[in-house]
Amino acid sequence: MIVELGHYALILALFVALVQAAAPLTGAAIGNRALMALAGPAAQAQLLCLGIAFAVLMHAYIASDFSVLNVAENSHSAKPLVYKIAGVWGNHEGSMLLWVTVMALYGAAVASFGHTLPERLKARVLGVQGLLGVGIITFILFTSNPFQRLSPAPLEGHGLNPLLQDPGLAVHPPMLYMGYVGFSLTFSFAIAALIEGRVDPAWARWVRPWALAAWSFLTAGIALGSWWAYYDLGWGGWWFWDPVENASFMPWLAGTALIHSALVVEKRDALKRWTILLAIITFGLSLIGTFLVRSGVLTSVHAFAVDPARGLFILVLLLLVIGGGLLLYALRAANLEPGGLFQPISREGGLVLNNLLLATATATVFIGTLYPLFLDAVGGGTVSVGPPYFDSTFVPLMVPLLIAVSVGPLLPWKRGDVLGALARLKWVAAASLVAALVTWYAERGGPVMAVGGMAVACWLILGAFVSIGERIRLFGEWRGALNRARHLPRASWGMAIAHAGLGVAIIGMMGALWRVEDIRAVKSGEQFAVGPYQVRFDGTAEVPGPNYTAQEGRFTVTRGGTVFAMTPSKRRFTDPPQVVANTAIHTTGLSDLYLVLGDEDPQDGAWAVRAYYNPLIPLIWGGAGIMMLGGLCSLSDRRLRVGVPLKRPDLVSATAKG
Amino acid sequence: MTRKKKRLVMVLGAMAALGIGAGLVGYALRENIALFKSPTEIAQEKIPEGRRFRIGGLVEDHSVVRGPDGVTVSFRVTDGVASVPVSYRGILPDLFREGQGVVAMGALDGSGTFKASEILAKHDERYMPPEVVKALKASGKWQEGASK
Hints:
Largest interface: A-B, 59 and 46 residues
Structural class of chain B: alpha+beta
Distance between the termini of chain B: 68 Å
Mean pLDDT of chain B: 79
Mean pLDDT of chain A: 87
Number of strands of chain B: 7
Number of helices of chain A: 21
Strand order of the largest sheet of chain B: 2-4-5-7-6
Largest sheet of chain A: 6 strands, antiparallel
CATH superfamily of the largest domain in chain B: Nucleic acid-binding proteins
Low-confidence stretches of chain B: none
Strand content of chain A: 5-15%
Low-confidence stretches of chain A: 643-658
Number of domains of chain B: 2
Order of helices and strands of chain B: HEHEEEEEEH
Helix content of chain A: 55-70%
Strand content of chain B: 25-35%
Oligomer: heterodimer
């Protein structure tokens, strides 16, 4: 009965979404305020309906109601509670329901907090958001209904893929979706602006917080996914250029470009058409990502099951959303008034360079990801495009971008002076050179990329410091600097923090190049060295878990005077019957020792063990975390906060300087 | 600077960026893609030694042999018609099993053995890599539902 209630709520959500789409868009077109006013309550009602549907599905999982097909196929009564809850989105149907619920959450947030939005714009934004809701809910209801009943109900479910029974499942998908779906709002804002035929700095000020929030969540979601892959897959790597990783990385790249170009619209009323186009493309890439991951066209951990009907449906949806968006853009973009002028060498010029390089990089990733599908579709054979492709296309494009990152913020708006900016960065350049030399000296014969990478990382981190230092005149009259720092807009802090976080992440990525790998078969009592660690194998033991039995390898590790134990294991699950290796990682915060237990040789009882010493690798996720904090810090800027008067005397003086 | 000039600079910049991007992509796609070959295709074609590509098929029954160092494993990958010897040094995926689907990335050595640098098995009991399905269909050994 409860399950039918959830199904009913989902159907109701579809009708509410239809109202949310039709009424405000019509109202805005004919100038009917009553119809426009329906948008807000409809968006809230849609969230309520989807929230109920989602809660019902979660209840079915917690109660192990195997009369629901989705629960029977993906859950098991012996599963720990956290995986019963997280298991809701550990399958195709549930994850799509999460997707659309998050989208409704964003819509309701605009409805609730967008008091300062002009009536007509708000109606149109929510209307477009409603249209998207109609598309996705229809998709769920007709091809992936999570509430489908199963009769007769089995006594026990199939269980969740043991690979997914990991705390990562509880956080990675919701974070990622908060990011992906957040860009649906920037899309709706862009479409609404095209219908209105008007883009101005105020529009950018309304859009940017949502873009920043989506970007911050997406950053966290991707970082969590990479971390999960790192400790779960047992390959010791953190990024594999796997198509599903690229699927989340492309909207991130486009979204990064978007938050930068929206800044130009906000401050200088320029780059308007480009920003609109980017908003459409970013959400388009989010949808393409969903299509790639969910349609089963790729070999990946994320492809749950192959169902051509779903793939076709998403493809049609994709064509409607992206095609419709681009068509509207083609028809209406020319009507947008051109904006402010600027010299090529200026803050705007720097941001244009940022956008050009990010857009090109997105395109190279896009081609590398879709080329195999394209070739297969035209009968050109099955190929795979792997890391070497991305290393030789993506990396060269990033180098100039990373160098520009520290210069851009030092250029004034409208007209700048590169030499002047570089002069202010001379100490940073010197320090970066020292970093390169030290790296080169420490690792002679080591990877060439690491030498450059360390210099770039140093350039980014110190460059971010200088950008703040210049703003608060730390290097001139340092006495009042603290006071000025307090009044510096949060957006400036956010930018510096995010850029420095990027530098920190790059140090981590370079560290991965110094990885020490060791694969060997060891018998109990044998000892071997991995990097600075001495590792002794003390045999294995069987340890029971909640719904598995673990074969645990016992290792004693020494480094200098410290001794600690590590226990990588193999978990044998019964439902479904599957063995999953569980790596053991000892981290110092600056380096990881990483152990994976392989198979036992039945003849001599030796165990295969793979060990990695990964210097600096934790900084990758630390850096991503800092970047996310930068995004959130920028988001908390009061100039972006809804309902705050735009001008305050002390802020005017602070911004006038920038 | 006039609007016209500004637009010219922007267009030139965009063309330069896209041109460089296109150049990099063209170069990388020629050098860095890996073809997929089924065991039958490997038997028929002369694939140069050292060229990296992917193979896929089923792990032949009773073919898995562990080397003397305890971490090198050799086995044969078959599509039911032809089979190819594969050797791999490392830890095999947890779902690697005789009679199951497998995809390997690597290159042939002088003796015709495929030296794998990466082994991908399926990650889920119910899932079969599309490449393996394709190879089996091509050799006529595919049975609908047999993967379960």
